[in-house]
Amino acid sequence: MITIREIAEKCNVSVATVSKALNYAPDIGMKTGQRIRETARALGYFPNAAARALRTSHSYSIGVLFVDETHSGLTHEYFSQVLNSLKEEAERNGFDVTFISHNIGDTSMSYLEHCLYRHCDGVVIASVNFNDPSINELLKSSIPVVTIDYLFDNCSSVLSDNVQSMRDLVKYVYSKGHRQIAYIYGEDTAVTRSRLASFHKTCEELKLTIPDEYLRKGVYHDPRSSGLATRELLALKNPPTCIMYPDDFSSLGGMTEIERHGLVIPRDISITGYDGIYLSQVLRPRLTTLKQDSEKIGRLAAKLLVDAIKSPKTYIPTREVVPGVVWEGETVKQIDAAD
Fold it and tell me: Which residues are registered as beta bridge partners of 96?
């Protein structure tokens, strides 16, 4: 078995320097640390996790708590991209990722109990019901936490710029001549409230009067609810010329319902999505959507949590806002505003 001492001799450095490099200590130069870790890999060195935990008082394990309304888990196209980026950044810093739930086998436990059971050094929380007492118990614990798309005292947060992104998307639709714009929004979350408020504010600035019946509640990542809401919108005496969906995946339900009505996108009606998942760009016609920077969101969440774990005395909770960009697809038709 290869030892740290053998790596130190090979790299002509001290045992302490090798130990710091393998633990990604900040006081080791980037090139030196990389050279030592590459040498360790080449020699076939594999650290003993238990010994490492005892020596450093860290488990080098990050918990991820992700529970969306439709229980889609890792099949969720948008959040799977965020979580993959988070995982890559965590592993680059020497941390493993563990998913947190309420159950271990037949044993039920709180989220905090699961984190303690797994000896998590910190937790990233995304897409959960933040009113859940079990979530609040974890947020108020001594375990470092980073939230995604939610603000909480004493925790760092990574937020999509939902306000500016919705503003950009509405203004794009407006620029294409649309004045009868409907919006199917998701369940009541901080993200939904930000997007809905931005939708109203932007329409107000553009002097657009949006009838109440043009606003329909749906569920994120749920084509069925969006399909039903689309059916209601199409049945109106004065239907919209453009329907904005809560996310790209949900827009599939709307597209199916539009097709059932014998309508063609965008000839007869225009639509937009939100998220910018891969699927949106392989659909035909290609979906016009708001591309969120999922890679950056996941990477920043992991980086902030690693900083909180490694430097607890100097760590100051911060808020990172990540902008999105409108992807101009083929589902929003240019029309005469007077029509």
Answer: 61
| The dihedral sign for the CA sequence 182, 184, 190, 193 | positive
156-181 tens-digit pLDDT: 999 999 999 999 999 999 999 999 99
Range(s) for CATH 3.40.50.2300 in the chain?
61-159+294-322, 162-292
Can you identify the CATH homologous superfamily of domain 61-159+294-322? Answer: Response regulator (3.40.50.2300)
Report the relative pairing of strands 107-108 and 103-104 from DSSP bridges. antiparallel
Question: Taking a C-beta distance cutoff of 8 angstroms, is the pair 296, 133 a contact?
Answer: no
Q: Quickly name the fold that domain 162-292 has.
A: Rossmann fold (3.40.50)
Confidence of residue 53 (pLDDT cuts 50, 70, 90): very low
HEC profile of the chain: CCCHHHHHHHHCCCHHHHHHHHCCCCCCCHHHHHHHHHHHHHHCCCCCHHHHHHHHCCCCEEEEEECCCCCCHHHCHHHHHHHHHHHHHHHHCCCEEEECCCEECCEECCHHHHHHHCCCCEEEEECCCCCCHHHHHHHCCCCCEEEECCCCCCCEEEEECHHHHHHHHHHHHHHCCCCCEEEEECCCCHHHHHHHHHHHHHHHHCCCCCCHHHEEECCCCCHHHHHHHHHHHHCCCCCCCEEECCCHHHHHHHHHHHHHCCCCCCCCCEEECCECCHHHHHCCCCCCEEECCHHHHHHHHHHHHHHHHHCCCCCCCCEEEECCEEECCCCCCCCCCCC
Name the band, by pLDDT with cuts 50, 70 and 90, for residue 47.
Answer: low
Cα angle vertex 251, ends 249, 257, to 5°? Answer: 130
Q: What is the pLDDT of residues 293-318, one digit of tens each?
A: 999 999 999 999 999 999 888 989 99
Return the structure tokens found at 285. Answer: 């016609």
Q: Is the confidence at residue 131, as pLDDT, over 90?
A: no
Residue 306: count other Cβ atoms within 10 Å of its Cβ.
23
- Average pLDDT on 112-123 reads 89
